[in-house]
Design brief:
Blueprint (H helix, E strand, L loop, with lengths): L1 E5 L9 E7 L10 E3 L6 E3 L5 E4 L7 E5 L6 E4 L4 E7 L21 H11 L5 H6 L5 E3 L9 E4 L2 E2 L6 E5 L2 E2 L1 E2 L8 E2 L9 E8 L13 E7 L7 E7 L3 E9 L3 H5 L3 E11 L10 E14 L3 E15 L4 E2 H5 L15 E17 L3 E18 L14 E22 L2 E25 L2 E26 L2 E18 L6 H7 L5 E18 L2 E11 L4 H6 L8 E14 L2 E12 L23 E13 L4 E14 L15 E10 L4 E10 L2 E2 L7 E2 L2 E11 L3 E8 L7 E9 L8 E8 L4 E9 L1
Parallel strand pairs: 2-8, 12-17
Antiparallel strand pairs: 1-8, 2-5, 3-4, 3-6, 6-7, 9-10, 10-11, 12-13, 14-15, 16-17, 18-19, 18-44, 19-20, 20-21, 21-22, 22-24, 23-43, 24-25, 25-26, 26-27, 27-28, 28-29, 29-30, 30-31, 31-32, 32-33, 33-34, 34-35, 35-36, 36-37, 37-40, 38-39, 40-41, 41-44, 42-43
C-alpha cells in the first residue's frame, strides 16, 4: 500500500522523502532499498524507516524492496512525501541488492534477514548459532551461559564477543565466573524481531569486549498475533510459551502497542545419571507509544529465574578406569547453579527535522548468580576436595545517547553520528568459596566491586559515486574499585590484595577506518580496520596494580560481496587480528582454589570466512559457512604457542524449505575440527559433526512441528578443557582432557496456536 502525504511544494529535482513501514504492524523497516529505476540511484531507509533520495534528473517513480516483503513501485509526485506500507511475502534472494549505499558495516543484515526467516530457532541458545561461524558449548548444566567460539577465539562466555538485547548489554564485567559472562536465557526466542552482527573491532558504537565481534538482538515492538505454544520432548523436556497483545485496535490506530510474553521450561537435559532438573521461567513486557509528532517512547521490562544441577566435566580416565559407570555419570553431585536477571528499560527516539534523529536509552538490571563447580576434584585439597562456589549479587545502571544527521552536497551523501554513554556495575559482593557438598568451608576471595565505564564517540560516513568511506573515533574511560572483605584468616586473598590500592582508572582511544567500493550491482569490495579492546576484571586490575587494564585489539579485514546470480549471495573475507593480552581460562582470574592471577600473553589470529546463501527455487534454500583461523601466542616459542581450545576450522550448512502448502523446516550440520587443548598441542580437544532436523506444518491459526537434535545419534563431546586433576583414590595428579558429553538423539514436538 502506498499513501501520498502532502509536504511543501517544490520541483521534481528536489529530494524525494518518504517512510517505509510494515503494513500490519506499522513498524518502520530499516535498510529497505529505495531505487529510482531511471537513473539506478538508490538509498536505504534509516532506523525510523525514513529515506531521502535525489536523482540526477526528475524522478517519476520509485521501487521499494525489503527482504521478506513484496516489492512495491510508486509514482513520485513533486511536493509530496511517500508512506509505503509493505506486505510480508515469501523470501526471494532477488530482492537482495548490492548498492554503493549499502554500508558493509551493516551487510550482515542481509544474512540475518535470510537466516532468521528460514532457519528454525529451537531455543535461546540457537539465537547465537544464527551468526555465521559462531559456535557454542554448554558444560555446567542447561542454565549456565554458553561457551562461545568465534573467529579463532575460545571467547569463554563472552570475553571477546559484545552481546546486547534492545541496546542493553548482556555481558557482565568482573563476573564471578568469567569476564564478559553473557547469559541469554532471559530472551524469549519468540519475541525476537531481528538481529545484527559484526566480526572484528571495526564498529565505533561498540566498545568493551568487541574484539572477535558483536551480536545485537532486537525484540518486537508490536506482535503480529497472539500465541500459545506447547513443546514436549525426550528427557522430561516440557516448555510452554504465551504472548498476547494488551491493547485494542483503536490503540493501534494511534500507533500504540503493548504486549506480554512468558515461558516456562523444565528438562533433565539428557541421559545424565544425575538429572539436571533444569527449570527456567521468563516474563517480558513492552509498551510503545508516540509522544507528540516527532518522538516515540518504548518501555520494556522482564525477569528470569533459573535453577539446575550439573554433572560437570569428567576426565577421560574416569570412565575408562571405572570411577563412574558411563560418560553420563558425575564425580561431584553437588554441582549446579541458580541465576536471576531483572531488566527495566526506557527508550526515547526523536526525529530532528527531515534528516536527523536523536535516541536516548536508560536501563537498570538486577542480577544474582551462584554456581558450584569442581574441575580438579582432589588436586588442591586432597582431604576435602576442590569443589568451589562462585557467587555474586549485582546492580547495573546505564544510559546511552546518540544523534545522527544526514546531509547531501551534490551527489555526495554525509551521515554524521555522535554518541555517549555510561554504565555502572555495583557487585555486592562477588565471592569465590571453597565448599564441600555445597557447604562453605572458607573464602578464597570475598569483596565488593564497583566498575564505571563512560564513553563518547563520533563517526562520519561519506558516500560518493561507487565509494563509501567510514571513519570513527571512540574514547572509553574505566574506573575500577575492589575492596577485599575476606577475613584475615584467608591467607590467599590477603596475600594477593595486601598493600594494593583499591582503585584504578584507565582510558583508551579506539580509531576506526572502513572503505568500500561497489564495482557494479554484482560486486562490492571492502576494507575494514580498527582498534578495539576488552577490559580486564576489576580484581585482576587491582591485584596487578593497574597492569594490562584495557588490552587493545588491532584488526584488518579485506572482503568481497558477490551476487553472481539473481538468487545467489556470497560474502568472503580475509582477516587479521592482534591482541595485546589474551584472556585464557584459568590464568586471568582466581577462578578455582589455588588458581593464579596472571595476565596472558599477546596473540595473533588470521583467517578466512566464507558465507553463501542460494535459493534453488521458490521454496528451497541452502546456506554454507566455512571459517578458517590460525590462532597463536605471539610471544611464545614455536611448538608451545597454540591457543588452547581456539577453533581453527568450523563449518555449518543447511537445506531449508518453505512451501505454499505450509510445510517448512530444514536439515543442517555443524562441524568443528580437532583443536589444541593446551599450548603444546600434546592434548587434543576432539572435533565433531552433528546433524539437526526440523519439520513444521504451519497454517494461519496453528503450527505443528518436530525438531531433532543430533539426528544420527553421534557420540561427541560438547565442551572440553585440559585440567591437572586428581581423583579420590589416585596417588598422583594427571594432566588430561575433561569433557561434557554432547546431547544424543533428542526429539521434541510442538503445537502452536495463533489468534
Amino acid at each position: 500500500m502506498i499513501s501520498i502525504l502532502p509536504c511543501n511544494p517544490g520541483h521534481a529535482q528536489q529530494p524525494i522523502t518518504g517512510k517505509v513501514t510494515d503494513k500490519i504492524t506499522r513498524e518502520p523497516l530499516e535498510l529497505a532499498v529505495v531505487t529510482d529505476p531511471r537513473s539506478k540511484t538508490t538509498t536505504l531507509t534509516d532506523k525510523d524507516g525514513i529515506f531521502v533520495i535525489k536523482g540526477p534528473g526528475a524522478i517519476d517513480s520509485l521501487t521499494i524492496s525489503f527482504i521478506g516483503y513484496a516489492p512495491a513501485t510508486v509514482k513520485a509526485l513533486p511536493g509530496h512525501a511517500l508512506l509505503a506500507e509493505l506486505q510480508k511475502s515469501r523470501i526471494d534472494l532477488k530482492e537482495v541488492i548490492i548498492t554503493s549505499h549499502t554500508n558493509n558495516l551493516t551487510t550482515s543484515r542481509t544474512l540475518t534477514s535470510i537466516d532468521l526467516n528460514m532457519q528454525p530457532v529451537r531455543s535461546a541458545q540457537d539465537l547465537l548459532r544464527l551468526v555465521p561461524g559462531l559456535f557454542i558449548a554448554q558444560h555446567q548444566g542447561g542454565g549456565k551461559a554458553e561457551q562461545i567460539f568465534l573467529r579463532g577465539f575460545d571467547a569463554d562466555h563472552g570475553t571477546d564477543v559484545n552481546i546486547s538485547v534492545d541496546g542493553v548489554p548482556v555481558n557482565m564485567v568482573s563476573h564471578a565466573h568469567g569476564q564478559g559472562y553473557a547469559d541469554l536465557h532471559f530472551l524469549i526466542p519468540e519475541t525476537l524481531q531481528g538481529y545484527d552482527f559484526g566480526k572484528g573491532p571495526y564498529y565505533t558504537a561498540k566498545g568493551d569486549l568487541c574484539t572477535a565481534g558483536y551480536v545485537a538482538y532486537d525484540t518486537k515492538n508490536v506482535l503480529d498475533y497472539n500465541l500459545v505454544k506447547l513443546e514436549t520432548g525426550q528427557f522430561s523436556t516440557r516448555r510452554i510459551v504465551a504472548m498476547a497483545n494488551l491493547l485494542n485496535g483503536k490503540a493501534k490506530e494511534k500507533e500504540q502497542s503493548a504486549y506480554m510474553a512468558g515461558d516456562a521450561l523444565y528438562s533433565d537435559g539428557g541421559p545424565f545419571l544425575l538429572p539436571e532438573r533444569f527449570q527456567r521461567y521468563n516474563l517480558f513486557g513492552k509498551f510503545t507509544t508516540p509522544i507528540g509528532a516527532a518522538s516515540r517512547l518504548i518501555l520494556s521490562g522482564g525477569s528470569m529465574y533459573s535453577r539446575w544441577r550439573s554433572s560437570g566435566e569428567i576426565p577421560n580416565r574416569a570412565v575408562g578406569e571405572g570411577y563412574i559407570p558411563s560418560r553420563w555419570g558425575a564425580l561431584d553431585s553437588a554441582q549446579g547453579g541458580l541465576t536471576t536477571r531483572t531488566n527495566a528499560t526506557a527508550k526515547l527516539t526523536t526525529t530532528l527535522g527531515r534528516n536527523g534523529a536523536w535516541e536516548n536509552l536508560a536501563y537498570y538490571i538486577h542480577y544474582e548468580f551462584s554456581l558450584i563447580s569442581n574441575f580438579t576434584f582432589y588436586y588442591y585439597f586432597p582431604g576435602t576436595g576442590d569443589e568451589f562456589r562462585q557467587q555474586e549479587v549485582r546492580d547495573i545502571e546505564g544510559y546511552t545517547t546518540s544523534v545522527s544527521k544526514k546531509n547531501h552536497l551534490g551527489n555526495t551523501g554525509f551521515t554524521s553520528v555522535a554518541g555517549a554513554g555510561l554504565r555502572y556495575d555495583d557487585i555486592h559482593p562477588g565471592e569465590l568459596d571453597h565448599t564441600e557438598n555445597g557447604h562453605t568451608i572458607d573464602y578464597v576471595q570475598f569483596g565488593r566491586i564497583r566498575e564505571l565505564n563512560t564513553n563518547a564517540y563520533a563517526e562520519e560516513t561519506i558516500s560518493t559515486g561507487k565509494w563509501l568511506f567510514n571513519a570513527g573515533l571512540r574514547l572509553d574511560y574505566f574506573h575500577f574499585y575492589y575492596r577485599s572483605m575476606a577475613p584475615a584468616t584467608d591467607t590467599f586473598a590477603s596475600k594477593v590484595f595486601a598493600g594494593t590500592s583499591p582503585v584504578a582508572g584507565k582510558a583508551i582511544l579506539s580509531p576506526k577506518l572502513n572503505i568500500q567500493y561497489t564495482l557494479n550491482p554484482h560486486v562490492q569490495f571492502y576494507f575494514k580496520s580498527g582498534k578495539g579492546f576488552h577490559s580486564n576484571d576489576a580484581r585482576v586490575v587491582i591485584a596487578n596494580r593497574g597492569n594490562s587494564t584495557l588490552p587493545a585489539a588491532y584488526g584488518l579485514d579485506l572482503g568481497i560481496n558477490l551476487k553472481p546470480a539473481p538468487r545467489l549471495f556470497i560474502n568472503m573475507a580475509c582477516w587479521y587480528l592482534y591482541l595485546q593480552q589474551e584472556f585464557t581460562y584459568g590464568e586471568d582470574l582466581i577462578d578455582q582454589p589455588g588458581g593464579p592471577i596472571s595476565p596472558g600473553g599477546s596473540t595473533t589470529r588470521k583467517g578466512v570466512d566464507l558465507s553463501l546463501r542460494y535459493q534453488l527455487n521458490d521454496w528451497l534454500f541452502t546456506n554454507l559457512n566455512i571459517d578458517l583461523a590460525r590462532p597463536r601466542f605471539s610471544d611464545s616459542a614455536g611448538g608451545h604457542d597454540y591457543l588452547a581450545l581456539a577453533p581453527t576450522f568450523t563449518s555449518t550448512a543447511g537445506l531449508d524449505f518453505k512451501t505454499k502448502t505450509g510445510w517448512n523446516g530444514g536439515i543442517s550440520y555443524r562441524y568443528m575440527h580437532n583443536r589444541a587443548a593446551n599450548s603444546s598441542y600434546t592434548l587434543t580437544a576432539l572435533g565433531y559433526f552433528v546433524t539437526d532436523l526440523t519439520i513444521n506444518y504451519t497454517r494461519n491459526k496453528y503450527e505443528l512441528g518436530a525438531a531433532v537434535e543430533n539426528l544420527f545419534n553421534t557420540q561427541w563431546n560438547e565442551s572440553q578443557f585440559a585440567y591437572v586433576s586428581q581423583l579420590r583414590h589416585e596417588t598422583r595428579p594427571v594432566d588430561e582432557v575433561s569433557y561434557t558429553p554432547g546431547a544424543p538423539f533428542f526429539a521434541k514436538l510442538k503445537l502452536a496456536v495463533f489468534f
